[in-house]
Write a structure and sequence with these properties.
The chain has 375 residues and is α/β, with parallel strands linked by helices. The protein has 13 helices and ten strands. Strand 6, helix 8 and strand 7 form a beta-alpha-beta unit. It is globular and about 60 Å long.
Length: 375
């Protein structure tokens, strides 16, 4: 049972973010030590099980079918491909495998039945299994839970206000609903965001407050630095400074003392010294694997060397217990209300999604045909 968690105001959170850096890191490190082993870091391997061709318009994402990015698209990986990747990840210290699919939402079809098989396959290897597949219905969340899923990743990405600048094909409320469905299925919640998309510090703090308002708070919060991929609308965004990343992690640590903070996309641009300060400020997990979903990540052996250098130990699977806490929708609603403006997109239709899903299907058909003529 978590102790009653303080409800932070936006003013207090902004003041935290802007504190002198040494004071902020010191406070965050103290909170971290009170609730976590500071020398233990969870390694979570990312695996893209279905790449590219997504009908959504997330401005940061190389997998959106409508942008002209240089990625290799792939249909669902097979059970054998996933078992091989998971076994390798486990042998290199990963306690969790996170499988990502470039979907807007899960459909009740053969592809979802296949994902259920993938979840069971990884669970049988005694690893924590996480999926990030887009929006879920309550029933789909329950099916994933019954298959042995441990966590579901579904990011809020930014504040509710800034969200409409970066995504028009779904609303913030849709994201929160999926998180609620995940929680009610007794899965652990993994939800965080991206910095460096042109948002303000207030947007970052508002996103953290929305996450911190969830009851219980998310078990994991990934903090990504934007990877500015050529061909996406955010391709010219300046890289976010390591100091912003450290501040973001420190504030996340203080407003969500129990959560595992994952130092996520953007690590290829970070020095070991920078990453060490992120661990000091409260990061307790990394995404490992030579690739994130489509973009590069540090070499796995270089990461293990960094662990050695810093005296960090990879965390064992299920060290936080098997059973996530069950959520109370009423408690969450009460905590979230002071920060919340209702999402409204009057007149919004998903015609564009349908149109781009068709284009993506056509592209996949063409790729398959090309493959056939090359054989
Ligand atoms: N399609 C599903 C969804 O959007 O929920 C799951 C996969 S999606 C790629 C998972 C997350 O990856 C996004 O919510 C976003 O936070 C992160 N992401 C995608 N592209 C990124 C980029 N270029 N830089 C940093 N993070 C990124
Ligand atoms: C998360 O917060 N970050 C990961 C994971 N959850 C799915 C994804 C990062 C993707 C970076 C861009 C890419 O490799 O395509
Ligand atoms: Fe990328 Fe997910 Fe957005 Fe699709 S829904 S464009 S995969 S972030």
């Amino acid at each position: 049972m978590q102790e009653a968690t303080k409800i932070w105001t936006l003013e207090e959170t902004l003041a935290l973010y802007q504190r002198p850096l040494m004071d902020l890191i010191y406070e965050a490190a103290s909170v971290h030590r009170a609730h976590h082993d500071p020398n233990e870091v969870q390694i979570s391997t990312l695996l893209s099980i279905k790449t590219g061709g997504c009908p959504e318009d997330c401005a940061y994402c190389p997998q959106a079918a409508r942008y002209h990015t240089d990625i290799e698209t792939n249909d669902l990986l097979t059970v054998d491909q996933v078992r091989t990747a998971a076994t390798r990840a486990k042998s290199l210290g990963s306690s969790r495998l996170c499988m990502g699919a470039a979907w807007r939402n899960v459909e009740d079809n053969a592809d979802f039945d296949h994902v259920i098989e993938l979840v069971k396959t990884v669970r049988d290897l005694d690893m924590e299994v996480c999926c990030t597949l887009g929006m879920l219905t309550p029933h789909q969340a329950q099916r994933l839970a019954a298959a042995g899923l441990y966590a579901y990743n579904h990011n809020l990405d930014s504040s509710e206000d800034y969200y409409e600048e970066i995504i028009s094909t779904r609303g913030y409320q849709d994201r929160l609903e999926t998180l609620d469905n995940v929680r009610k299925a007794n899965l652990t919640v993994c939800s965080g965001g991206i910095i460096g998309m042109g948002e303000s510090v207030a947007d970052r703090c508002k996103m953290l407050l929305t996450l911190a308002s969830l009851r219980p708070q998310p078990e994991s919060v990934p903090i990504n630095a934007l990877v500015a991929v050529p061909g996406t609308p955010l391709e010219n965004q300046e890289p976010v400074s390591i100091w912003e990343m450290i501040r973001m992690i420190a504030v996340t640590r203080i407003v969500m003392p129990h959560t595992t903070i994952r130092l996520s996309a953007g690590r290829t641009e970070m020095s070991r010294e920078g990453q060490a300060l992120c661990f000091l400020a409260g990061a307790g997990s990394i995404f490992a694997g030579d690739k994130l979903l489509t973009t590069p990540n540090p070499d796995v052996f270089a990461d293990l060397e960094m662990f050695d250098l810093l005296g960090l130990r990879p965390k064992a699977p299920f060290a936080d217990g098997h059973l996530p806490q069950s959520g109370s929708a009423e408690e969450t609603a009460a905590a979230i209300e002071p920060h919340r403006k209702r999402w409204s997109r009057p007149g919004h239709t998903i015609e564009a999604n349908v149109q781009y899903a068709e284009i993506a299907k056509e592209k996949r058909r063409a790729t398959r045909q090309q493959g056939d003529t090359h054989q």
